[in-house]
């Protein structure tokens, strides 16, 4: 069988396949398209005619520009005193950063003040984030600036969550005979404790004299008072004093 080109491509297509719509059931195009689906691809129609093929296998129609990556987070430590943690406070931190100019390429150096509102009772390790406040560079997302709250060492107290611990040293005489102790507090006047006797590492707890509980507004931790007994730095060499102590002090109990 041979076919002659008659100068009409549409007619030749129909003559060869025996129908004017051989692909209607294959590509789901329905009837009526016929060979026009191929012969109409000339000129600007090629791109439109191939749109159905560009999605095979999830392939995109064209190349997409990758989203700009963000610079790594910049982290700073912010030390806060226990007094400021107790009351809450506002800290203003000045940062110096690079900022893009209007041309989108060159940069200038700029100072900016970031305001940090510290809530009463915030624990050490709390993070405050300022999104995209880092240096600006073409084609990149500025870094986040993060401040991490740290407890500033205190000369009197040590923080333990919402409690604060105070170590009070007393003499052996006061530990044996009893004494009255003035205990400082973080805020407000001191508290008086009367003790009959004190064993090493004895602990007294003063309710509500600690730090605010950020998860329970209006509630406070405790002030923990720990006593350390100081023994004489020099041995007792006087025989009379030693005999007196031997008679007064009880022997070790093995009960």
UniProtKB/TrEMBL annotation:
One annotated GO biological process: protein folding
Q: Which residues form a coiled coil?
A: none
Which terms in the Gene Ontology molecular function aspect does this entry carry? Answer: protein-folding chaperone binding; unfolded protein binding
The record's Gene Ontology cellular component field reads: cytosol
Please list which residues make up the signal peptide. Answer: none
Q: State the source organism's domain of life.
A: Eukaryota
Gene3D superfamilies to which the protein is assigned, alphabetical: Urease metallochaperone UreE, N-terminal domain
Q: Which SUPFAM superfamilies match?
A: HSP40/DnaJ peptide-binding domain
| Entry keywords, A to Z | Chaperone
What range(s) does the Chaperone DnaJ C-terminal domain occupy? 74-232
**Entry's Pfam families?**
DnaJ_C
Query: Per its record, how is this protein called by name?
Result: Chaperone DnaJ C-terminal domain-containing protein
Origin organism lineage: Eukaryota, Metazoa, Ecdysozoa, Nematoda, Chromadorea
Please state the gene responsible for encoding this protein: Acey_s0040.g302
């Amino acid at each position: 069988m041979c076919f002659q080109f008659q100068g009409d491509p549409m007619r030749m297509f129909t003559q060869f396949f025996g129908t004017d719509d051989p692909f209607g059931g294959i590509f789901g195009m329905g009837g009526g398209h016929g060979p026009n689906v191929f012969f109409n691809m000339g000129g600007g129609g090629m791109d439109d005619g191939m749109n159905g093929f560009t999605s095979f296998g999830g392939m995109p129609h064209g190349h997409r520009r990758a989203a700009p990556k963000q610079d790594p987070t910049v982290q700073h430590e912010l030390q806060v005193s226990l007094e400021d943690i107790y009351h809450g406070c506002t800290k203003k931190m000045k940062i110096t950063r690079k900022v893009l100019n209007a041309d989108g390429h060159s940069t200038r150096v700029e100072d900016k003040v970031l305001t940090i509102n510290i809530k009463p009772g915030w624990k050490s390790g709390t993070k405050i984030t300022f999104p995209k406040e880092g240096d600006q560079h073409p084609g990149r997302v500025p870094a986040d600036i993060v401040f991490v709250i740290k407890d500033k060492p205190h000369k009197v107290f040590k923080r333990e969550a919402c409690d604060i611990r105070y170590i009070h040293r007393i003499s052996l005489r006061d530990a044996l005979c009893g004494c009255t102790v003035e205990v400082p507090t973080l805020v407000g006047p001191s508290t008086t404790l009367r003790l009959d006797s004190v064993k090493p590492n004895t602990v007294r707890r003063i309710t509500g004299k600690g730090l605010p509980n950020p998860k329970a507004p209006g509630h406070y931790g405790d002030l923990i008072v720990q006593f350390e007994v100081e023994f004489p730095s020099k041995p007792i060499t006087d025989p009379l004093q030693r005999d007196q102590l031997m008679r007064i002090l009880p022997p070790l109990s093995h009960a």
